[in-house]
Design goal:
Rossmann fold, about 10% strand, three-stranded antiparallel sheet, Helicase, Ruva Protein, domain 3, binds glutamic acid, 4 domains, 22 helices, single chain, mainly alpha
Length: about 475
């Protein structure tokens, strides 16, 4: 049997990291079993769904490289893959259920449904609809009056009163006790299907074998399996992935910072970082491996190693991982990805980035060792590009006045002035020679020198930094300090 999974986002916002992880797990599971991964847009909530959000979701998934085999843009044998284009299917399948005796039409107004609920609650009963009550509203007069106003009958599902169980591939056995819910709506009076109904029709028709999704949908599963049974259809396997929490143990939300794939992208995360991090957010590789390519994940992914307890989103780890990926990625790619951040910050123009490409390439190669997000590249580069006001603070003065430091800096200044070749080798040579006479403590000398040139005590390789700042700027900065 071919394994078929799907990611079924509602286009009502950005791609949240929880959704991105769900998409990834579905993708990995399908690829691991040489199956198919399907994208379906669940836009039945006409008020909240937007085309803009659908496009953003598609962009974000494409950026992450989670290619779908069937769905919008690529088509497939079981389309359409947008729920808003499937209304006729939902209606005709609901009619099938009516014929089977598993559903019925109701000529009832929303206010009346509300009243029934309130009455049941006030009598201390569970607020469940049933055929006996609802069919009381189905009289010939009522039909005439109701449809005369242009309303369509609501289609209700006749919920069998019995226990239901599933064996969730992550949560284990789950039983829904009889009486948990009553009859429920399949098609509303405006002709729109409800989520719990549409999802079953789609999963059935798209031949989905494994439903992998967030465990906020676990309670919906009861309604869904009842509908499968009514059709005498195969029930897919379910795998409910636990929630993602913030470091404070509360559900991950805006309050915790960036939470969407789009935001991470715009801060200069590489897609492979996000995939790697999200894979580990609830799953672990049997070999304990932490840094993994998508292909490595595909080879080892299994639902048996997905954790049933909530995962904590740790942005520090994600950042660290991104730094790691930035350092090891192809340099031409990092150069190209950095340019928009540099031009956005107006550090250099697009043209300057191209005309000084050789220099800029080297500078980015140097500073990429100390950034965790590409958006920080301009800040790190500014020391090479902007005229800098150096602060000779007390920490600097401590190193600068240490034994032999000032003399050595003076000496280096003289040697650098005479260095016409300006290569990393000659710079290093000159610094070493400068130390020969005054013999300063190396650490104090280098700290003072770095601060005098970059206004910072720490940073990437100092010789390369000096080389990239350029001779004229180095001389200018050293001149100020030797005259202190
Ligand atoms: N459209 C639902 C959501 O975005 C997903 C439903 C499902 O995976 O069954 O939460």
């Amino acid at each position: 049997m071919e394994i078929r999974t799907r990611f079924a986002p509602s286009p009502t916002g950005f791609l949240h990291v929880g959704g991105a992880r769900t998409a990834l797990y579905n993708y990995l599971f399908a690829r691991r079993h040489n199956g198919k991964f399907i994208l379906r847009i669940e836009d039945t909530d006409v008020e909240r769904s937007t085309k803009e959000s659908e496009n953003q979701l598609i962009d974000a998934l494409t950026w992450m490289g989670l290619e779908w085999d069937e769905g919008p843009q690529v088509g497939g044998d079981y389309g359409p893959y947008r729920q808003s284009e499937r209304n006729d299917i939902y209606l005709s399948k609901a009619k099938e259920l009516i014929e089977k005796g598993s559903a019925y039409e109701a000529y009832i107004y929303p206010e009346e449904l509300e009243q029934i609920k309130e009455k049941l609650l006030s009598e201390g009963k569970p607020p469940h609809y049933d055929y006996e009550t609802i069919s009381g509203y189905d009289t010939p007069e009522r039909r005439k009056e109701y449809t005369g106003k242009g309303n369509k009958p609501v289609i209700f599902f006749k919920m069998p009163r019995k226990d239901y169980s599933i064996n969730d591939l992550i949560k284990g056995p789950v039983t829904f006790k009889e009486g948990a819910i009553g009859d429920f709506i399949l098609i509303r009076s405006n002709g729109q299907p409800t989520y719990n109904y549409a999802v079953v029709i789609d999963d059935m028709q798209m031949k989905i074998t494994h439903v992998i999704r967030g465990d906020d949908h676990l309670s919906n599963t009861l309604r869904q399996i009842a509908v499968y049974e009514a059709f005498e259809a195969n029930v897919p396997e379910f795998a409910h992935v636990s929630m993602i929490l913030g470091p404070d143990g509360k559900k991950l939300s805006k309050r915790h910072g960036a939470t969407s794939a789009e935001e991470f992208r715009s801060r200069g995360y590489l897609p492979e970082t996000l995939l790697n991090y999200l894979a580990l957010l609830g799953w672990s590789n049997p070999d304990g491996k932490e840094i993994m390519s998508v292909n490595e994940m595909i080879e080892s992914f299994g639902l048996d190693r997905v954790n049933s307890s909530p995962a904590i989103f740790d942005e520090t780890k994600l950042k660290w991982m991104n730094g790691n990926y930035i350092r090891n990625a192809n340099m031409e790619r990092i150069f190209n990805l950095s340019v928009p951040f540099i031009t956005e910050e107006k550090l250099l123009t697009q043209e300057q980035c191209q005309t000084s490409k050789k220099w800029l390439y080297e500078a980015i190669e140097l500073v990429r060792t100390s950034v965790e997000e590409l958006k920080d590249i301009p800040k790190e580069l500014s020391v090479f590009i902007k005229d800098y006001e150096i602060e000779y603070d007390s920490e600097f003065m401590e190193y600068f006045t240490a034994q032999g430091v000032k003399e050595t800096i003076k000496e280096a200044y003289t040697l650098i002035q005479n260095d016409d070749s300006w290569e990393s080798e000659t710079i290093l040579e000159n610094l070493k020679n400068a130390m020969k006479n005054a013999k300063p403590q190396k650490k104090s000398f280098y700290l003072a020198l770095r601060k005098a040139l970059t206004n910072q005590f720490h940073g990437p390789d100092l010789v390369k930094t000096i080389h990239l700042i350029g001779r004229a700027r180095v001389i200018e900065r050293l001149e100020k300090v030797v005259n202190l």
